[in-house]
Amino acid sequence: MRRTRLKHIGVTAILLLAGLGGAGTFPASASGNEASATTSAASTADTASVSAGLLGAMQKEFGLSAEEAKARLAAERTATTLEPKARGTAGAAYAGSWYDAEAGRLTVAVTPDASRATRDALSKAGAAVRLVEHSARQLDAARDRVDQLDAPSAVAGWHVDPQANSVVVSVVRDKLADNDVQRFLTRARAAGPVTVETVAGAPGTFAAGTVGGDPYYTGNVRCSIGFSVHGGFVTAGHCGQAGAGVRGWDGSYIGNFQGSSFPDNDYAWVNVGSGWWTVPVVLGWGTVSDRLVRGSAEAPVGASICRSGSTTHWHCGTVLGKNQTVNYAQGAVHQMTKTSVCAEGGDSGGSFISGDQAQGVTSGGWGNCSSGGETWFQPVNEILNRYGLTLHTY
């Protein structure tokens, strides 16, 4: 940020509470009860310093008490740590996983060829185990085949849903009987296990004419900063092409788009200079304390997640799906994460964060923050890997 802005950022960063720390790992020999006790002890320390603002937002969004909100944050942190280990334990039998808010733990789906030892190991680590027909590898292959089809505009997108053990195709509700839609669905079902859901509207991007976490401007478009990286920040690709100049909230020059991809992907990064610098902070806009960024561990499906953007500021919801193909008017974008969080024009590129872990940058969706809607983001780790960037963390 420019020096005139840093005073505000410095104060808010100092006021930030520690947020969630790292959850402990499960010993291979621990029983389910022992694992729960270990997790509970670690989680008590982790959630002791969660800000009142974040707890308040969790209470409002999910109808929880303060203690229930703390318990959910702790359980989600444990599930986030467990998910990659569960994938490794299940191996070829892995069929996806998700956080079950009612049970307060991760559910791991496996195919019937998972050995008893594998299922026992998952259970002892604290996960619920569900037997399903199709592996994650089979579902991903089916989704890839659907990606090769030409989709009409009334098909909003598709993704692998581990709970349904299927590729779910989303169709605009009043267009389901359309002949082009029905032809697409026939071809999609031939590609593998497919189910159909209806949605209220077709997705669109959330860029806006001169309207952002913190806003930035390129040409006559306003978007939002996603996350600071060393040397700049990441954001949405549809906000600007490589080489385009970027101005900050005060109109001063920041830098240029160094790389940008849209459609197919929706990510970009901007270099920072001219008196601006990066800080590992996501704005809470007075709804919650500004959030320090401590890493980018990926939250599981079902976990709570919040978004910061310059138009509608801070809103929260849950992760609904991963690896979704979104069929925008400009072309399909792949490997997106779907959420129940609302957004509006100008929020594009802004931060999706779970606890203190960066998740991704806002891409698009449908609806608004008055009547509700759904929003997709491009996962931040994919952006970092694509451009060889390092997330700026506290």
Automatic annotation (TrEMBL):
Residues 1-30 form the signal peptide. InterPro entries: Pept_S1_alpha_lytic (IPR004236), Pept_S1A_streptogrisin (IPR001316), Peptidase_S1_PA (IPR009003), Peptidase_S1_PA_chymotrypsin (IPR043504), Streptogrisin_prodomain (IPR035070), TRYPSIN_HIS (IPR018114), TRYPSIN_SER (IPR033116). The keyword ATP-binding does not apply. Belongs to the peptidase S1 family. The keyword Oxidoreductase does not apply. It comes from Streptomyces antibioticus. Keywords: Disulfide bond, Hydrolase, Protease, Serine protease, Signal, Zymogen. Residues 134-178 form the Peptidase S1A alpha-lytic prodomain domain. Pfam families: Pro_Al_protease (PF02983). This is Peptidase S1. The active site is at 238 (charge relay system), 266 (charge relay system), 348 (charge relay system). One of its GO terms (cellular component) is extracellular region. Gene3D superfamilies: 3.30.300.50, Trypsin-like serine proteases. Disulfide bonds join 223-239, 306-316, 342-369. SUPFAM superfamilies: Trypsin-like serine proteases. GO terms for molecular function: serine-type endopeptidase activity. It comes from the Bacteria. One of its GO terms (biological process) is proteolysis.
